[in-house]
Specification:
alpha/beta; 20% strand; Rossmann fold; 2 domains; six-stranded mixed sheet
């Protein structure tokens, strides 16, 4: 698989707000980088694949849920690069396999289930699994390691005229992409992160502390109130928005990350969060394979 940095296509959007005004923004189409290793996963895996090869590893072992974009991208990229892959799956592996895990298995990924209560990288169960794979490079869930961060630091470098934007907006899971963007953004820019999981108010300061360790010339803001009903959970409001967003822009979004991201963006615009002089770019980080978990006809694309 060719891991050279691609130039990222951008789509300009003019969105009519409820008050009749127009909100203009740019979407960086990381989702169009590669059909199977799309979005931020391309950048997160780039240096992990290189490290595995450099260190003579047999492959990569990582972690994820049953519908994980990260697992699908890891399985494909390892298979394409002649490496083995293994995944520690959160919870029971249900047969027949869902579309994501079926794809992973087709790409020769070894699937290993671990009880949900033991699903953390330093648990005894996970450590035991890793001990049986000493010749595999361990990559944390979502590619959240130094190699993944270094890849995400390169995203802005392949967006044409990235310096003209005053606001750069991305969704947050592990926060690796947010930190990579913040590390490479300029002093006149504001990087806004939209967490896709519900974070309790008493846990938000710890979350912010974790993601403030990266040095950045830019201003960093995390907005917590746009996770909807919770991580990987759907309601009709989100589905209706995703369908409307596609009808208006022809841009497809996913149910876990970018659907919530775009909904947050439009909500903020309706609330007059942005000044009309702001130049806004939002990062479409891919993950569309997760939509295969939906019943046919739920979304219009």
């Amino acid at each position: 698989m060719q891991m050279n940095l691609p130039f990222i296509k951008c789509t300009e959007v003019d969105w009519a707000l409820n008050d009749g005004s127009h909100f203009q923004f740019t979407v960086a189409r990381l989702d169009e980088i590669h059909p199977f290793v799309s979005g931020n996963k391309f950048f997160k895996l780039k240096y992990n694949l290189a490290r595995a090869k450099r260190e003579g590893k047999q492959g990569i072992i990582t972690m994820g849920g049953a519908f994980s974009n990260h697992l699908a991208a890891t399985a494909y990229s390892c298979n394409a690069e002649g490496l083995q892959s293994a995944a520690i799956i959160r919870g029971e592996i249900v047969k027949p396999l869902n579309a994501t895990l079926s794809f992973c298995e087709q790409q020769q990924m070894k699937l290993i289930a671990v009880d949900r209560k033991d699903y953390r990288k330093n648990s005894a169960s996970v450590e035991n699994i890793l001990s049986y794979h000493p010749d595999f490079l361990f990559v944390p869930e979502g590619g959240d390691n130094e190699e993944g961060l270094n890849g995400c630091k390169e995203i802005l470098s392949v967006i044409e005229n990235a310096d003209i934007y005053t606001h750069i907006i991305c969704c947050m899971g592990t926060g690796t992409t947010f930190k990579g963007i913040a590390a490479s953004a300029k002093a006149h820019q504001t990087v806004i992160g939209i967490p896709v999981m519900k974070i309790k108010k008493e846990e938000r300061s710890l979350f912010l502390q974790k993601h403030s360790t990266i040095e950045s010339a830019a201003q960093k803001i995390v907005l917590f109130d746009h996770a909807g009903v919770g991580y990987a959970k759907l309601n009709n409001e989100q589905i209706n928005f995703m369908n409307l967003f596609y009808i208006k822009t022809s841009i497809t979004t996913d149910i876990i990350y970018t659907g919530k991201l775009m909904q947050a963006l439009i909500t903020l615009a309706e609330q007059n969060y942005f000044h009309y002089t702001n130049k806004i770019i939002v990062l479409h980080t891919g993950g569309l394979q997760g939509n295969k978990s939906l019943q046919a006809g739920t979304i219009v694309y």
